Amino acid sequence: MQQDVSLELEVEEIVNEAQVKPGYAPEGPIDPSLFALWQSRYTTPQKQAGLFLVRIPLQCGVLYNEDALALADLAENFGDNSIRLSPDQNFNLKNIPLEYLGNVFNKVQNLKTQSHIPALLGNMVACTGAATCALGLTQSRPLLDEIQKELLRRDLELDRFAQVKFNLSGCPNACGNNHVADIGLFGKALKKSQALYPAYTLQLGGFVHDAGSQAASQVATVPAKFVPQVLGDFFASYEARASELGDFRAWIQSEAAQLELRELAQSYEAQLPELSEDESFYFDWHDEARFSLLKGKKAECSAGLYDLIDYDFDKIKKLNKAFALDPANPGQVARDLTLHATRALLVTRGIEPGNDTEVFDAFLQDFLEAGLVPAQYKELVALARKNDLTALQNRVEEAEALGKYMKHLYESMDDSLRFHLPRQVAAPQDKKTEKEAPSANGDLAVYTSQATKFRDFRGVSCPMNFVKTKIALDPMAPGETLEIWLDDGQPIANVPNSVELEGHEILQQDQQPEGYWSVLVKKA
């Protein structure tokens, strides 16, 4: 192939030099003491003598129109090579002569930026989270705001942490670069007694610099509403012993720092109330509705579903580790291991149990009787269902084996939630838990659709209605149609969009006189 020289990329050298507009006069700072603090926080000497880079810290990269115009007018005085947008969501002015720093300071005092707060807070990074991202699980930006408020409320010497990188993401995808920050957080969905609540995994010790890089260590998980207090306690604890512990960024690399943060997180997690005791912990920051894996029109629940599955397998891992160190209460351990093993994959069958008994009953029907799990575990599950701790005392190894089998089954699952291990027994006819057609007593609207298949998902909450829709579509042939009935509100706002994200086509959706919605789906 002949080389086309016209396509070669030519990069012109950019010279960093002072280019002050003629007639533009230096100004003295309107508040000299505040100017000195601002200069120490947000100006950096360039290698070109007498020139500075000035950081304009923005809240999550938000720059208001009138402020952008004001900064453009200011930058015009310093030549073409004066504006930079940084990866940490901030706005930078480059090639500013020392004598003109007062001009910049005076201007930013009247803008809606974060130039008045410590650099630790002004440099924090957060992705958009669940507010706009299809994969986002949690509200990362409102959380960042709450963390800033909490750290300021504690009156800490925050300027000592000026170089600390603090990044948040609303899901494990790490768009906020939490995995390479000194302190990182990423959102996830957890459960307490079958109720979903927003949470975060806390990370420590990540970095990227010329000498190399290191991924942050995952230290602990904590409910979203407790994150500001946990971090406030962590910073306060370090500050009280700063002279003893040394440099903060070096200290958080240590096992001692990780242990301290883990114990803090666990102490707060233990305080999480039941849903019936305080519903507020089951709302995300600044949300007006209960936490859900589906968030408005851009919702997509796959990441959250896998997060729920991983939660139970993580619990099994921790129980096994704790029992190996201290083999006390074997009956309770066997029962808890069995509970998490049996619950882990129920979500893949569209099952949302309300209590432990429903967990065991659903597992017996949809996994053991369906032939997905060997019959040898039936007695173990029955004993766990009866909470017979005495009979379970010698069954810890069997419960551990069930956990391993369920993990193996999970690893065989494809994107359509089908398992690819040989069935243990002949599977019986699937029991229908949704209505194939309206009941004969006339309490439902007349079903006249010519759809290939029909399911009534009224009364089924998100994301289970989506999972059930996905399961109903799975055995259908391409081009066949499925009619589903959904409640008004979150179900109709979320499920059709999630179905389209799977590649299927929404042919029609109509609200019925009774208030529910009929949605016609064509399988891809």
Which structural traits does this protein have?
four-stranded antiparallel beta sheet, 16 helices, 4 domains, 524 residues, single chain, five-stranded mixed beta sheet, 15 strands, 15% strand, Sulfite Reductase Hemoprotein, domain 2, globular, Sulfite Reductase Hemoprotein, domain 1, alpha+beta, 35% helix
Topology:
Blueprint (H helix, E strand, L loop, with lengths): L31 H11 E3 L5 E6 L8 H11 L7 E3 L5 E7 L3 H8 L10 H4 L2 E2 L13 H14 L12 E4 L13 E10 L2 E10 L2 E3 L2 E3 L2 E7 L3 H14 L1 H4 L2 H4 L3 H15 L32 H24 L4 H14 L12 H13 L9 H8 L10 H16 L41 E4 L7 H10 L7 E6 L3 H12 L3 E7 L5 E6 L2
Parallel strand pairs: 5-6, 6-7, 12-13
Antiparallel strand pairs: 1-2, 2-4, 3-4, 7-8, 8-11, 9-10, 13-15, 14-15
Helix pairs in contact: 5-6, 6-9, 10-11, 11-13, 11-14, 12-13, 15-16
Describe the protein's architecture and organization.
The chain has helices at residues 32-42, 65-75, 101-108, 119-122, 140-153, 227-240, 242-245, 248-251, 255-269, 302-325, 330-343, 356-368, 378-385, 396-411, 464-473, 490-501, and strands spanning 43-45, 51-56, 83-85, 91-97, 125-126, 166-169, 183-192, 195-204, 207-209, 212-214, 217-223, 453-456, 481-486, 505-511, 517-522. The protein is of the alpha+beta class and 524 residues long. It folds into 4 domains: 32-116, Sulfite Reductase Hemoprotein, domain 2, CATH 3.90.480.20; 125-282, Sulfite Reductase Hemoprotein, domain 1 (2-Layer Sandwich); 300-411; 453-522, TusA-like domain (Translation Initiation Factor IF3). β5 (125-126), α5 (140-153) and β6 (166-169) form a beta-alpha-beta unit. α11 crosses α13 (378-385), α12 (356-368) packs antiparallel against α13 (378-385) and α15 crosses α16 (490-501). It starts with 31 loop residues before the first helix and ends with a strand. 36% of the residues are buried.
